[in-house]
User: Fold this.
Amino acid sequence: MITPPEISWLAIAPDLALALGAALVLLVDVQWKPAARVLAWVTGVIVAVTTGLTVVQWAQSEPADALAFSGLITMDGFAVFARLVLVAATALGVAAGWRFVAGLGRRGAEAIALVLLATSGFSLMVASNNLVMMFLGLEVGSIALYVLAGLARERRQSEEAAIKYFLLGSFASAIFIYGVALIYAGTGQFEIVGIRDLLAGFVVSSPAVIYIGLGLVVAGLAFKVSAAPFHAWAPDVYQGAPAGLVGYMAAVAKVAGFAAIARILLTGVLDLSGAWLPVVAGISVVSMLVGSVLALVQGDVRRLLAYSGVAHAGFIMTGVVGGATDAVLFYLAIYAIQLIGAFAVVAVVAGPDAAGSSIDQYRGLGRRSPLLAGAFTVLLLGMGGLPVTSGFVAKFGVFAVAWAEGYQWLVVVAVVASVVALAFYIRVIVVMYMDESEDEGALRIGPERWVLVLAVAATILWGIFPSSLLDLAADALPI
Amino acid sequence: MLTALVLLPLAAAVVVALVPGRRREIHLPLGIALSLFPLALAGYLFWVFEPAAGFQYVVRVTWYEPWGIDWHLGVDGISLPMVVLTTLLVPIALAASTSITNRIKEFVVYILLLEAALIGAFLSLDLFLFFVFFEAMLVPMYFIIGIWGAERRIYAAVKFFIYTAFGSALMLAAIIGLALTHVSQTGSASFSLTDLAGLELTVGTERLFFAAFAIAFAIKVPLFPFHTWLPDAHVEAPTAGSVLLAAVLLKLGTYGLLRFNLALFPEASVDAIPIMAILAVFGIIYGAVVAIVQPDLKKLVAYSSVSHLGFIVLGTFALTSGGLQGAVIQNVNHGLTTGALFLLVGMIYDRRHTKQIVDFGGLQKTVPLLAGFFLFMSFASIGLPGLNGFVGEFLVLMGSFPALPSLTIIAASGVVLAAIYLLWAYERVFTGVPDTDENRALSDLSAREIALLAPLAALIVVIGVYPGLLLDKITPSTEAVIDHVVEQTDFVVPEPGRIEDVHVAGDEG
Assistant:
């Protein structure tokens, strides 16, 4: 006789709202065939409701009763903060991709529904205390993303991106679940908190199984966050997927992936840190070096952002090495916003026919569309981690904790990689301001403008007054 | 007051940015007018500054408490002259930019942003804040070189950016390390210079941190062998950019060595005296020799900077009263004379559109005023007694001799080499008979240009004749630096190195 777990509606309210919202969007679409404007309102309401529910969660989250559904789901500050970032990324991402969505005509509702579903899955994933639950969330989110990557199917690149993403992504998911199975074999536990308690209380008799399982889990998640050497898919997907939505896709995958990595490593198996710290530090170094060096030689802005994303995965890993969830969360929040903003610019520059994103198209942008170029400059410098931008505070945070943890050499590599990273961001700025453009005339900016305003404001305001977000992140502790 | 000093140029930049782009004719005058406010405030600060050790007018507001970051500004005898110099040169640099017609608004905005970052960096007493300003100034300077520079501007701008960013990245790592050491030793986070100076570091760590800071500043100075970005940046930068780069930006390097390396890592500084001094002297000679053979007038002045800044580093690491006084005063002097020389080169370039020395000849017949100013500034740069360069170099050499006699003797030959490259350049450009029609048709300095050069020339004479004006304000602070080093280490200031033993004009102390 199985007793069904007690249902805690609040713990899954945001995920539920998003999933129901996705269904609602599809139903509304089928029933009334509404104009894009109506769809936008519906989406807005769904996102607003989800945000409201998440804020309620934040107010309610107490470490004592953070676990729900017999320990499947947690409602700790860490999960809620990550959720807030995911919801914010969704709102920004939909606005950034709106031109594309509206251009899809009848299929626009599908794109919205997929975005909402993806967020719902990842939102479940960041709140999972159970490895199987985490896998469910991961799959819901990832599969929606595979489809999103292929939505611009008139372009061959988009199809290629979808296939590549799907094949490699499902391979990574398989590796992840295999790792989960091995961890279960070693500990008899799916629950992260349970694994922690077990490791704290007993000497594990066959650690090799756990180590291998852990390694596979980390590898699977490293794929999702595009950390080297599991990054091969990223440039093609970033290049092929619909421009406006790429920022969203990359951002939520990174947020959810890193939240899962941080939760498993820092909550679950912190006692085994002697085994995994060198591995994570290694992934971090390889990502930073591979990402920043390869980004230097890219001639396409999307591929450049993809490789820079690999480098960023390395930077965030230093925060994991430092064992500080708040530094990781802060970095994720900042980077997600900047990335979506940057891809909003890419979408505008690519224009309605989404024709490529070669760096040549950015020539003289500073003259053609000064505000757009200015926003892009702020975002690029922010991602480069220049002081007075939030990117600097974020980098500083993760480097500082890694240093404090005794990984000084890692920090030195990281600062050198940041300089290289600045170099390729600067390259884009050079092209925008110091080259002459072949075309004249300003570019038409649609709803992306709001994304850019918010992203630039976040970059500068949290760069100068980081306290508000840092304090919030500091409160967002995992159980 | 100090906060206002940082925010005034920033506000000015915003005001200029808000003026509509089509009102092209008012951006530059507005920028110049607004940049006079910081100058007035800095002048007032100089006036009310009491000569005493320690920081004055300290502002300290918590910025982000858990990390111990403060908005922490203060001024002492070492930073005061630099702030005044910065605020003085910005209006002059702007006023010298009338030949810029392309995107003048952005240009003014960038210069004003640069000013804010520079003043902030000189006044910061919090290492985090300092780093923020130190990095923040890269962006405006990068654009100034990259947009309004000469043909190879992008190469120069990127090279400038990468070099400096690389140096400061290592410094950032060291700053993090220092702050965390503070956490582990006292339990609370702090980036305050005074807090961090009190840390107990092991010899190894201290040397590592010293090296990280020293490399960052050595690139900025630039000290041989980190100087290769400088000639490119100078030659490609527009006149205003060159002036500010040479006169103020480079000083951040020497200022940083003096303010941060000596204060934070006294033990390692003492150990590093031979290395730093040898690099400095090598730079003096190398810069001078390379300057002699330069065919390009602007490059010549740029290499002369490498040579002159070597004196400042030498004086700093002599760790004697005279050496430090000379270093600070030479910071100001080099700013005035080299700034003026770059202005003059810019004026020549505006007339002839060439900087190649071979293209000129006999200019003193056609442009006697310009030639006169050039000769005057050259004399100041060489160190003719009665002008400012003499005071600074004399103090540096005098102060360094007891500590490093043999190196000082070699360094002194740099003065002779300076006479060679500057006077030889003067001879080739200005003396003789004008040989080409272009050279015969040049117009002499306008009233505006004289107005730009006159205040610099006046200050050069004032400092040369009455250095006490500056030295009185500087000395308590430089003495405090030496006291700090002597307290923290078993370093003994070589005799006769302290203030009682050195008697120089204007120094009654």
